[in-house]
Amino acid sequence: MTTGVVKDRRFMDHDMGAYHVESPHRIEVLNRMLEEDPPIAYLPIEPRPATDEEVGWVHEKGYIDLVRSTAGKTVPLDMDATAGPKTFATALLAAGGFLKSLDLVMDGTVRNAFALVRPPGHHAEASQALGFCFFNNVAIGAEHLVRNHGLRRVLVVDWDLHHGNGTEHAFYARRDVMYFSTHQVPLYPGTGAARDFGAGDGLGFNLNVPLLAGKGDADYLHIFEKILGPVAAQFEPEFILVSAGFDIAAGDPLGGMAVTPAGFGLLTASLMAMAERTAAGRLALVLEGGYDLRALRDSVREVLKTLAKRDSPRATLATSAGDSPEALRVELEDPLRTFRRKWDIPAA
Ligand SMILES: [Zn+2]
């Protein structure tokens, strides 16, 4: 079984202007890498537009109609989200492409998948475009797995630099979709406190790990292996979705993190091992942020190489693997105190 990649030039059709960091060039460099020097043999997945019904699982009808009404025009919907002539069509294609990749993982055509789409989605709220996002691709995907594939537990891991406020809100009171986010603070959009732990039925199923700038491969891997790993083992997800933002990469113009391409490979390997334990390996990533084009390209390349490895690679750093740097240990005290109200997380 192979890895599926959603790839299409039409994801360049959404354009917020020559100087906007969330630019069509992001897709251009990824497509060129896949065409000129593909890191793996992959199954190309041609996207399809999401339907109104599918988008409507997460977004209000009036909002969908508002975005539809921007077709052929240029309309600022938010300070950080301007719809252009083809934004509506491109956003539908991004969500639908991700849904198609999930279907192919579910029916066993591919082992795992990566949807290289834009615009990104995790800031989009039920009735509001926000932070470069129009429709919440990962949330629509999680709904698809629950509604159409009958899954009872889906884990959404969001390693983007920013907190996925839209995804958190979509599932805040639900226990069938767990949301786990690492994000830099203080930073846009200001949500994502550790104390925001879910509500009602969903209390304990929304996990936020706010981080000060400067974290690198070892920090992220520590969080994935020592915190997310034990929680996932108890939650027992049947599918793991990833809001894969590469704005935590070293050199990103919006971020202050320092993850290397090799580090993204390790995070991917860690999630593959979690997916093997309870989800029959089912893992699908969707592109969120990532604005340094070289870091984006090199990191996506490393993620794809990892996804294609036959045996789930062990996620370990060569040296000082489990060491928790002191700064990180202090920052994790608050999230851990919250998470342990619900989950058994051994002292690292
Ligand atoms: Zn981001």
Description:
With 348 residues, the protein is an alpha/beta fold. The protein contains ten helices and ten strands. The strands form two sheets. An eight-stranded parallel beta sheet has the order 2-1-5-10-9-6-7-8, sandwiched between helices. The chain has a two-stranded antiparallel ribbon with strand order 3-4. Helix 4 crosses helix 5 and helix 8 packs parallel to helix 9. It is globular. The two termini are 35 Å apart. 53% of the residues are buried. The model has no long low-confidence stretch (mean pLDDT 96). The protein binds zinc ion.
Strand and helix layout:
Blueprint: E1 2-6, H1 25-36, E2 42-45, H2 52-55, H3 61-68, E3 75-78, E4 81-83, H4 87-106, E5 110-115, H5 137-149, E6 154-158, H6 165-171, E7 177-184, E8 206-211, H7 217-235, E9 239-244, H8 261-278, E10 283-287, H9 293-307, H10 326-339
Residues 160-162, 245, 247, 288-289 line the site of zinc ion.
Q: What is the string of SSEs from the N terminus onward?
A: EHEHHEEHEHEHEEHEHEHH
Structural class: alpha/beta
- Counting DSSP H or I runs of 4 or more residues, the number of helices is 10
Strand content: 5-15%
Helix content: 25-40%
Overall pLDDT, averaged? 96
Main beta sheet? 8 strands, parallel
Terminal residue distance: 35 Å
- Order of strands in the sheet with most strands: 2-1-5-10-9-6-7-8
Number of strands: 10
Radius of gyration: 18 Å
What ligands can be seen in this structure?
zinc ion
Shape: globular
As residue ranges, the low-confidence spans are: none
